[in-house]
Amino acid sequence: MRIDVDALKCIGCMACEMACGYHRDDAFALLSSCIVMYRTREKKDYFGVVVKEEESLNIARPEGLEIRRIGVTEESSDSGQKKEGDASAKPMLLREPCDLCSGMKYGPMCVKICPVSAISLVE
Amino acid sequence: MDLETGQISEDELDDELVGQKIGGVGITTWLYEAHKDSDPIVLGAGLLTGTLFPASALGVISAKSPRTGGLTHSPFTLKAGMELKYTGFDYVVIMGKSEKPVFLWLHDGVADIQDASEFWGADVWSTTDSIRKSMGDDLIQTLVIGPAGELGSDLAQICVNYWASGDCWGFGKVFGQKNLKSVALRGMGLLEIADPEDFVDQCFNVLETIKHGAFAGKNGVEDILTAMGEKDVKEWIAPFVHRHSACYNTPYPTNTFIYLDENPKTLTEPSEQEPGFLINDIGALLALKKAGLSAESAGRVLKACAKYGIDPTAVAEVTAKSGQKDLEQIEKSFADLKGPVSDPKAKKFSSWTPGRPLFSDFGLSDDSAYGDWWVRRQAVAYLFGIHPIFANMAPEISEELLIEMFNKGTGLTLSQETLDKAIADVCL
């Protein structure tokens, strides 16, 4: 099971990021979230969502999903374009990978909090 | 923060004050009155701002308006209200006038006054770019003025990052008079809740109820205007719409991004650095349309207003009266734009929020009931930190519910009587 994000449905509200932070810290905070909205291209309105998994960063971009293997320099992207990393992506490598909100009665909190059903749990 | 002396002092937020004034505009008003002699400008976050409660996006600026002469309140949203909360400062009182241009840098429990001489004279967009670049963080949120504020225009607006805000009071001039170019916000703080499990349970329950409400499936400023009876706005602007986006944790995307110099259907990152504009001012867009501008021209005027840091609604009003449709001429008029411009319609809260319910009738039988309802609804939103436009869409976010969230969140006890008094205090 893993978290799947439809970046075209995403409205960039960051609720998923805060919900994940709550799971990690038992308080509201953003520093430990393993799901993060990337929003550094603000003037271009180019945004999406990054999910850190055990071995990869899954970057849901408007044009499609990009999977970056952690520790591997090569990238695979269904858009075929190499992307410059966001500053916000750097600390992602230091964060705990997604555990699907293990131990939380709600299940994955990012799925539950998304107001537009852009996040789902898939096989 | 005293800009004249450079002195900064910090106080703990007192439970008794929260129990009486709640938060947001309740406490910014209290702080304003306490420092009134120093002509302060006060920033604040709502009680629920930055939590998982739906639409908890609001930050508030309170100051004496150059346009009305009275204490007024301006909302700021996008991600800036949330970011203020996580800087570690719920409220900031800015007093005095700096000798030289400065910006305030609030981050991680630290407040600094920094030199802004190199940004003075720059427009809003390049100032935000420069601050982010100099601090090495593209996620810094800025409350920022452009040339309009520096030159002392009564119509100067405090913008958020690159975009318009709800400042219809001329607060940009107040920043300029203080030689204050910007307040830069970034926080990695942590917000503890008295009863977190119950609080989060209720947040999920509320979201589950409201996300299927009357606004479900609607997007952006154009659907809001359609709900207000402006049926042809959607078709007018559709060729330029790129995406819709929401302010922090707000279930309805109140912002419409239009591409003016790129194909709006483009999904990949555009090569153009500044391809368009984020429209969040419903009234200004409508006024420009009614002035006879094309959607593209309206977008370019709004973008120019945001760079110059001037209230787009005022610009739209003057444009409509003059009949001017030439973009260059409209932009040239910014420097001398003094009037005739109507006073903001509301007395305390920004007319950036439409003066009526949206998508839902809130049980109001006719238009004559909107006035008092709107003032009370906005007061409640500004106290608790609820996005003020979304507050007019979601009747499920009732005063009773907000009292319940207050009690779960703070561990204090708020009664309807105390809420009524807090509302009355900020509406006087």
Q: What is this entry, summarized?
A:
The complex is a heterodimer of chains A (123) and B (428). With 123 residues, chain A is an alpha+beta fold.
CATH class of chain B: Alpha Beta
Please state the average pLDDT score of chain A: 87
The figure for the number of domains of chain A is: 1
Write down the secondary-structure element order of chain A: EHEEEEEHE
Work out the strand percent of chain B.
5-15%
- What is the overall shape of chain A? globular
Element string of chain B (H = helix, E = strand):
HHEEEHEEEHEHEHEHHHEEEHHHHHHHH
Q: Report the radius of gyration of chain B as a whole number of Å.
A: 20 Å
Structural class of chain A: alpha+beta
**CATH topology category name of chain B:** Aldehyde Ferredoxin Oxidoreductase,  A, domain 1
The helicity of chain B comes to 25-40%
Helix fraction bin of chain A: 10-25%
- Report low-confidence residues of chain B grouped into runs of 5 or more: none
Feature tags:
heterodimer; A: 123 residues; alpha+beta; 2 helices; B: 428 residues; five-stranded mixed beta sheet; four-stranded antiparallel beta sheet; 17 helices
Describe the overall structure:
The complex is a heterodimer of chains A (123) and B (428). By secondary structure, chain A is α+β, with helices and mostly antiparallel strands. Chain A has 2 helices and 7 strands, in the order βαβββββαβ. Chain A has helices spanning 15-25, 109-113, and strands at 2-5, 35-41, 46-52, 56-61, 64-69, 76-77, 119-122. Chain B is of the alpha+beta class and 428 residues long. Chain B has a single domain (1-428), classed as Aldehyde ferredoxin oxidoreductase, N-terminal domain (Aldehyde Ferredoxin Oxidoreductase,  A, domain 1, 4-Layer Sandwich). Chain B is built from 17 helices and 12 strands. Chain B has helices at residues 15-21, 25-34, 80-86, 124-135, 147-150, 171-177, 196-210, 220-227, 233-237, 282-290, 295-308, 312-322, 327-332, 370-384, 388-391, 399-410, 416-427, and strands spanning 41-45, 59-64, 71-76, 91-94, 102-107, 110-115, 141-144, 159-160, 180-186, 241-245, 255-259, 276-279. In chain B, helix 10 (282-290) packs across helix 11 (295-308), helix 10 runs parallel beside helix 12 (312-322) and helix 14 crosses helix 17 (416-427). The two termini of chain B are 27 Å apart. Classes of the chains: A alpha+beta (123), B alpha+beta (428). The A-B interface holds A 8, 11-15, 18-19, 22, 25-31, 39-47, 61-63, 79, 81, 83, 86-88, 106, 112-113, 115-116 and B 50-52, 54, 79, 82, 86, 125, 136-139, 161-162, 188-193, 196, 200, 203-204, 207, 211, 242-251, 253, 257, 259, 267-270, 272-276, 278.
